[in-house]
Write a structure and sequence with these properties.
alpha+beta; two-stranded antiparallel ribbon
């Protein structure tokens, strides 16, 4: 990058360098990316990083256990944006199974009274 040259940073380019990752466009759950900044670094490290990792781990485990035959049922629609990226639509098919959890899920709205 030369002095005065414009530079645009994009999260969409993360982990897509073919010199670093073979087949960067292929989803590889076993890939071990090095030097990623998903949750920031140093004093800017995300305080919720461990909670987010735990939530993702629990969600994926629950999907794998409850929906063992889950598969894609069509094309994935990707959200295209200059600021964020992600999946807009991902149709799936699976055989529904009953929940093994017999405990009711209770939620109490926090009181606004102090």
């Amino acid at each position: 990058i030369r002095k005065g040259q414009l530079l645009i940073l994009s999260n969409a380019g993360a982990n897509h360098d073919p010199d670093v990752y073979p087949d960067p466009e292929v989803f590889d759950i076993d890939r071990n990316p090095q030097g990623i900044l998903t949750f920031g670094l140093g004093p800017h490290y995300c305080l919720g990083a461990n909670l987010a990792r735990m939530e993702l781990r629990l969600m994926l485990r629950e999907i794998a256990e409850r929906l063992p035959d889950i598969s894609l049922a069509g094309d994935i629609s990707i959200l295209r944006s200059n600021f964020i990226s992600g999946v807009k639509r991902m149709p799936v098919r699976f055989t529904p199974t009953p929940s093994t959890n017999t405990e009711p899920v209770l939620f109490q709205r926090p009181s606004l009274d102090r």
